Predict the 3D structure of the following.
Amino acid sequence: MLIKAKTIQLHTAEKVQLFDLTNEVKGFLAESGVWNGMGVVSTLHTTTGMFFTEVQDALWDDVDAFLRHLVEERAGYKHNDPRFSDCDRQNAAAHLRSILLGGSLALQVENGRLVLGQFQRIVFAELDGPRPRSLRMQFMGVGAALELPEWKKKDSRQFPTNGGVQ
Amino acid sequence: MLIKAKTIQLHTAEKVQLFDLTNEVKGFLAESGVWNGMGVVSTLHTTTGMFFTEVQDALWDDVDAFLRHLVEERAGYKHNDPRFSDCDRQNAAAHLRSILLGGSLALQVENGRLVLGQFQRIVFAELDGPRPRSLRMQFMGVGAALELPEWKKKDSRQFPTNGGVQ
Amino acid sequence: MLIKAKTIQLHTAEKVQLFDLTNEVKGFLAESGVWNGMGVVSTLHTTTGMFFTEVQDALWDDVDAFLRHLVEERAGYKHNDPRFSDCDRQNAAAHLRSILLGGSLALQVENGRLVLGQFQRIVFAELDGPRPRSLRMQFMGVGAALELPEWKKKDSRQFPTNGGVQ
């Protein structure tokens, strides 16, 4: 079984900014050698988000505007009040947006390819930038059958009920 | 190790419509032979959602009304404006609802059964129908010990710290 | 391959209450022996939520207030109306909040440690307490290489493309 992971570092430039990480994830999947299996992409921060959506400038502007509308920037948050909080970033709204968006995505891998619909992309949302940010992706599964050593290929023919791979 | 996947096709009939996919997922789990392991169910679209909830007509009407209330259907979205977008479906609200609901669910399998609470069901939400839609489910794990070939059962007795399965 | 799972029981004391489960999850990961792999933490209820966030009293008060603001407690929900529903808990708002928060988290494990950012904690939200609640966590992956039997270590040297573990 293969278990491969990689951390992505990025420097965000705006307060709120979306990034399409699909190509990075696909590129690492190819490197990983995982042919069939599962994956997880996780942000390592609490004022960011991970989700699937289409990539289009107009839609991404709508996402930004919607998040600002849904979660007010200033609403008497205790997290932004020095009487209750030692955080001086005034970023309660970013925390709340982050909770709504979620922080990790479960992925599927089939025949070496990420299982995504035609318009689905893996999007990372900076919600309290600009800052350096880290994401981690991991794939777990079996490599391509062609790359198995000879004795394993024989086993898989002998025990096909086992899925052909140990 | 077993890794099994299947795509579900469905034709939705309404603009917003919920589907209980639990029986489909359980049925495929039984077919897959995975006895212990993990699963992922993913929508392949960007104007749909996946989540856990109870199945009850009254509650599902509330979910529909709530999504319409939370994300306004028309709010000057750029994605719906031909000056900024080449999408003619006017479906920005569906995209935003989709991002809030999420697009994939991580599942657990124990002794051949999907780990779900008494009232938990796996629900797919159409948010911009009617349309043909695809979902993909995948299970990864080990088969039932009884089905292992004899030499493997011996191995599992010899090396119990390995979980009994290679 | 190791696949280990455990159910956490807890008794909530408030209508809405957040719990930091990170130490429970880390403790079970250590017990499980999984050194590299994936995990899932799932709630088994439909009026609860699971998410990542920072632990801070002020922020948690903001989360509580925000959920109450975002989803009105009483808004003519059919689920709360005996004409449409046989549920007498009047908990439609808790169901809707639960759908927004999500019910399962995909996790990564690296070298025996849960992959989490500095401020990320695994949080369980009671949304319709007080009640007894159950969560289930599962880890799947490979154990530490040092614990492999000798013949496996030899195999891993012979077939390094296989990740060193069968």
Q: What stands out?
A: Chain C touches chain B through 42 residues (CB under 8 Å). The first helix of chain C runs from residue 22 to 32. The first strand of chain C starts at residue 2 and ends at 11.
